[in-house]
Each structure stands twice: as structure tokens, then as C-alpha cells.
Amino acid sequence: QPQTIHLRRATPFCSSWPERVSEDGQRSTTPQTHRSENVDDLIPNNIKHKFGSKIVNELLTQEEIEKFWAEKDVEENVVPSAEVEEKPQKPAIDPLDTYESLSFPLRHNLFPGAPTKWKSLARDSYTQEVHHRFQLDMDHWHGRRTDELGQWVEKNIIHERMKKALGELRKGKNAS
């Protein structure tokens, strides 16, 4: 069905859509989208370049193109642009204002409400029982050195301390 398109000037009170006149003389100002039934026009050049034109043409069939345009028509017909109401936008929240409004009461302890006593959990949680509950897990050393050099250093330190303690004991026996 051939349609003639008359373009009219956009004014603040009328839409800028092209005016379509059908064969029976009825005029409509619905948006006319450029429909391309060709795969080459539907896919952007950068995607064709990345994946190759041949692969894109193989993957995108003619039925998929028709299905795409049918869904697009349904979406356009669901909500006409004339019936869409503009909702007033909320002003953007400035994060600096939020920071300042929270930082002053925090610094001066001015938050309203009943005062509460703060109790630290350090004395309750970190007792000698922590060391008794500790179980060595060879899979999770959490950054401790487990190689042979680290073990040798540890054994060497213990050996040096034992030598020093034995030397002091011998000096004590010889002096008495």
C-alpha cells in the first residue's frame, strides 16, 4: 500500500512526526520507523566486523528479523506518545549535603534518642578460651610461613634459646 509522506514544520504545540496520508485521505502523525528487511542494515557495522558478516548472516534468519519488527510494532502501539504523562523529577540528592548532615551530629553526639551504654565485646570475645579453641588447619594458614626455611628459622631460634639457658645453668653450677 503506497503512502505519501508530507513533512511539516515542528512548532512548540505540534509534534514533529511526519504526516502520513493514506490512500483514502486520512492523515496520521504516528512515527514512521525505517524498516529494513535486510540483515545487513539491521546489524551495526562494528558487530559485523567483530564477528564477521558471514557468521552474522548465518545466525540471523529472515524469520528473526520479522519477529523483531513485529515485537517492535507491539511495543510502539502499547503506549502512544501522546498519552504519556511527564512525572515531576525528584531533585538530585547531593552526596556532600548528606555527608555534612550526618557528620555534624556524629562529631557532636547530637543524635536524638535515649542514651545507651556502649559495651565492648573485646573482653567477652577475646579471652584465653580463644587459644584453647584454636585448631591448626594445614589448608588455611592465613599468611603464616609454612615452608622449610620458616620451620628451620623457628627451630634455630628455639635451639639458640636452649643453648643460652644451658650456658647460664652451667655458669651457675660452676660459680657455686
UniProtKB/TrEMBL annotation:
Top-rank taxon: Eukaryota
Entry-linked InterPro entries: CIMIP4
Stretch list, region Disordered: 16-41
Pfam assignment, any one: TEX33
UniProt protein name: Protein EAN57-like protein
